[in-house]
């Protein structure tokens, strides 16, 4: 679901609400959101997301010394 599809939804939502009533399009939209969230949670990298560990600061060398 992207922002590019929003105009299509704005155009089709009233037609679907007239044809099926308001509850059916809302339920279908909710199921699509649930499926996209569920699909995202199936990605292993998302499930094992970790915060990077901080590295120890290294001593700075004085300027011009090598």
SSE topology sketch:
Blueprint: H1 6-20, H2 23-41, H3 44-47
How does this model look, in words?
- The protein is mainly α and 66 residues long.
- 58% of the residues lie in helices and 0% in strands.
- The chain is built from three helices and no strands.
- The longest helix is centred in the middle third of the chain and has 19 residues, at 23-41.
- The chain is elongated.
- The termini are far apart.
- The mean pLDDT is 87.
**Percent helix:** 55-70%
> Overall 3D geometry?
elongated
Average the pLDDT over all residues and give the rounded result: 87
Alpha plus pi helix count? 3
What share of residues are in beta strands?
A: under 5%
Low-confidence stretches: none
Number of strands: 0
H and E order: HHH
Specify Rg, calculated over alpha carbons. 25 Å
Counting helices, strands and paired strands, the structural category is mainly alpha
| Quaternary structure of the protein | single chain
Give the distance, in angstroms, between the N- and C-terminal Cα atoms.
56 Å
Note the main sheet: none
Quick structural summary:
The chain is an all-alpha fold and 66 residues long. The chain is 58% helix and 0% strand.
Descriptive key words:
66 residues; elongated; mainly alpha; 3 helices
């Amino acid at each position: 679901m992207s922002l590019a599809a929003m105009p299509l939804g704005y155009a089709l939502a009233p037609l679907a609400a007239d044809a099926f009533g308001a509850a059916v399009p809302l339920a279908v939209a909710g199921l699509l959101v649930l499926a996209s969230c569920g699909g995202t949670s199936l990605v292993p990298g998302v499930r094992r997301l970790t915060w990077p560990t901080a590295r120890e600061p290294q001593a700075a060398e004085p300027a011009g010394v090598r």
